[in-house]
Amino acid sequence: MNFIQNIGAKTLAFIQTLGANVLFLIKICCLLPQTLLRPRLTLRQMYFSGVLSVLIIAVSGLFVGMVLGLQGYTQLAKFKSADVLGFMVAASLLRELGPVLAAILFASSAGGAMTSEIGLMKTTEQLEAMNVMAVNPVARVVAPRFWAGVLSMPLLANIFNVAGIYGGYLVGVEWLGLDAGVYWSHMQNNMTWSYDVANGLIKSLCFGMAVALIAVYQGFHCVPTAEGILRASTRTVVSSALTVLALDFILTAFMFVN
């Protein structure tokens, strides 16, 4: 009986948290006109959350592409079809690995930073001071960070994809000796905008919304202590990773399974 009660309590807690996140998202969306009137706040947050994450995204994408190129060549060489290595690397990155890994890396770096920053502002009572001065802290602090994360995620995913494809080129062409023209031609002839590129962009946009929402929600509702900020940042990274993987399964089922 206690086991069943625990399952029921955790299920209700999950539903309540999910509902609270949705209501918080609606509140942020309703404040979009105010956010558009102050674009500098969003652009500044795009620099902190997007530009400062480019290095780790690009380097990770390069090594992932190199691993895909090496493993793909090893497997394809058995069937004497290594010429399609470029298509295999590009398809793996654009459809799955690029958006997913970029989102997880974004959650680990920028997402945790968002949560810690907002949580610190709450701990030092800066958010309460904004309320006293008749300034909406959600519009001033939360919304710009949320939209910055949403806009940055597709750009970072594309950087990850480009670096990964180049990594596959380095391994397949420069190291293993495949023909460069064959590598690029198979990729160009078999990849399509509507099926591969556009679906990957849609995935990265959805992942960006999920990660940014979790990050700002955890920071805004964290316990205003040092331990509370630490736990909120940890929840942001863990919850974002699980949410991205779950969303990836759902979106893949709708996009690529006929």
TrEMBL record:
Membrane topology: Multi-pass membrane protein
Localization annotation: Cell inner membrane
Coiled-coil residue windows: none
Transmembrane segments: 12-34, 46-70, 82-107, 155-176, 197-217, 237-257
Keywords on record: Cell inner membrane, Cell membrane, Membrane, Transmembrane, Transmembrane helix, Transport
Principal place of residence: membrane
GO MF annotation: an example: phospholipid transporter activity
Assembly behavior: The complex is composed of two ATP-binding proteins (MlaF), two transmembrane proteins (MlaE), two cytoplasmic solute-binding proteins (MlaB) and six periplasmic solute-binding proteins (MlaD).
Protein task: Part of the ABC transporter complex MlaFEDB, which is involved in a phospholipid transport pathway that maintains lipid asymmetry in the outer membrane by retrograde trafficking of phospholipids from the outer membrane to the inner membrane. Probably responsible for the translocation of the substrate across the membrane.
PANTHER family noted in UniProt: ABC TRANSPORTER PERMEASE PROTEIN-RELATED, PROTEIN TRIGALACTOSYLDIACYLGLYCEROL 1, CHLOROPLASTIC
Family, per entry: Belongs to the MlaE permease family.
Name the UniProt record assigns to this protein: Intermembrane phospholipid transport system permease protein MlaE
